[in-house]
Amino acid sequence: IEIKPHKQTIPPELRNKRGIRKTVQLSETLLYQKNLAKWKSAEQYAKNNGFIFEIWTENKLKELGISI
Fold it and tell me: What Cα–Cα distance (Å) separates residue 10 from each residue in 55, 65, 66, 67?
């Protein structure tokens, strides 16, 4: 299990509601891409070794009754 803020589990927003491109922090984009690569590797490792890999966010923790 990896615990991440929900914001880090979704792609950074590139456009506002009117379709105008917004400036996105390079660090947010790089962090998201790094997480994707890490999760892909972790899922493959888990699959090959009989484990289950899950990503939990604050939403999942609240569902489980864990306060943050």
Answer: 12, 23, 22, 22
